[in-house]
């Protein structure tokens, strides 16, 4: 299991390498922590690249966004900020039409659809937020997850300006007074740092799927996009898939599946 | 030499006291923001950068462009242009300080600012911003101070000043590139952008640099005229006219590329850019309070260009002063006010979020500008006390030099 301690080791190692000093010891710490992570726990989920597939038809029929959002918010100590403009959102819902351009909607043969889709961090293959971060507080893990170090973030919000999906939120106030009940398994944040969806990395290490997947009634799938036999890869080839703002070339890891034979609403 | 800043007239002290009062007000507002978080600003999840960053983009371009023109003049004639290059250099010192402070007050976790150096990230444009601005600040303090020391001793400036001045000029180019990169990070870093988008960002880059030169030259004209009137410090009229011409040409280029940008957005049917422009100039859903300011900016730019373009008009000192104010104001409205809104609105879901600026945020902005004015006042005081004869021919100069300033 990659514990919090190991995670910090890894972050420290990345920092050391970045500094350019004690480069060798930094690298050895990194590899050591990855090795111990593998040895300790065989149940942890691993992947070449984690990805998420929303089965739009099924989601419309059977999923409840309020349930999905509430389990996510509770587990990650997401505050209930009264001012909606400054609220923290790891996952939100958006109209089908707001998510995809007309050309994209034509491509799947569904010009309009009365559904609000779940949107969250896309964990891009080439994440703009990672490129612009001046402290590497946002970084991409080898398994494709774009993760954050809340203790290194200086709150410059460059990542928010760069993210084409508005997936990031900033703690404009101290979030702690706005958390109903603190879940001790996950850290609370301070004011002045950015945060976003982390694909539930803390659950993946225990071999558990992300909470939104678990709460979706089977309409959101999760797994290794690099493995052609995985459930997500199988699902992708079973229909037409859209990703948001595909033209930017950042290759989002969150995909929206439209099964074949779907009739227009 | 700094001791010369400590003795001055009653007016000078009153000016410093006023600036210190404004700074005190700004510091108080910043402490409130430090304790209460950035919720005390008008920024939000959708408008994640606001007036602080737009002040930064305005002031960086303006500050470095003015000194670049002055430095190029100085390289041609060291005697004649000493006065204006010193004014330009110390103006840029104060302005870069202001720019850095605007970044600082914008941070959510200012106590962690050194993480930028602890974890240097060369792939991030902000890292290079810090390096180039820091370097330019140090270089200009050094260049200004060495020239002043030499002048005080009645010596020629040391020979290494020339290559360092050339480096300073080159650094301005780099700073512009970095500033453009920072300004447009959202368009430059995506690998799959269409050609229309690239054309759009190219037009924007040129507009960005052109207006920086327009406002930089105009600001330096203002500074020269103000010191000529208040401190009776002579600046060659030739250089003022050169600055006026530069400002005019740069502003025309800037306006042409703005028109091109609007043209690209509408002929290529780039709906998101159209929406941004419409939000700025028309206001979407009756929400935007910025549209009137944008039209004022257009009027100011047009009138400013006209006044600077006609030689007979720009040689009149009062008209030149008016024109310079118009150009600076038009560029400030475009960059310092509108750029933060134009870039984020609407968001990726097509929504428009209002950005209402609370008084606390304005107080911090005033405080930061006051710090810049304080620094520039003190530095200029030293310059006025040391430099006695910046002009070869006094008939070419604005104002009469007084021995005891």
What's a quick, concise take on this entry?
The complex is a heterodimer of chains A (265) and B (405). Chain A has helices at 4-19, 23-40, 56-62, 65-75, 96-99, 102-107, 128-132, 158-162, 201-204, 211-214, 231-237; strands at residues 50-55, 91-95, 116-120, 138-140, 146-148, 169-170, 194-195, 220-224, 239-242, 254-259.
Q: Topology, please?
A:
The complex is a heterodimer of chains A (265) and B (405).
Chain A: H1 4-19, H2 23-40, E1 50-55, H3 56-62, H4 65-75, E2 91-95, H5 96-99, H6 102-107, E3 116-120, H7 128-132, E4 138-140, E5 146-148, H8 158-162, E6 169-170, E7 194-195, H9 201-204, H10 211-214, E8 220-224, H11 231-237, E9 239-242, E10 254-259
Chain B: H1 10-36, H2 51-76, H3 82-106, H4 115-118, H5 125-152, H6 161-183, H7 185-188, H8 195-230, H9 237-267, H10 271-281, H11 291-309, H12 311-314, H13 317-344, H14 359-386
The Rg value of chain A, from CA coordinates, equals 19 Å
- What is the number of E strands of chain A? 10
Strand composition percent of chain B: under 5%
User: Percent range for helical residues of chain B?
Assistant: over 70%
Principal-axis shape of chain B: globular
- Biggest interface and residues each: A-B, 54 and 48 residues
Number of helical runs of chain B? 14
The counted number of beta strands of chain B is 0
**What is the structural class of chain B?**
mainly alpha
Quaternary state, please? Answer: heterodimer
Q: Radius of gyration of chain B over alpha carbons?
A: 21 Å
The profile of the biggest β sheet of chain A is:
4 strands, mixed
Which residue ranges of chain B are poorly predicted, with pLDDT under 50 across at least 5 consecutive positions?
389-405
Give the helix/strand class of chain A: alpha+beta
CATH topology title of chain B: Formate dehydrogenase/DMSO reductase fold
- Average pLDDT over all residues of chain A: 85
How far apart, in Å, are the first and last alpha carbons of chain B?
15 Å
CATH superfamily of chain B: Formate dehydrogenase/DMSO reductase domain
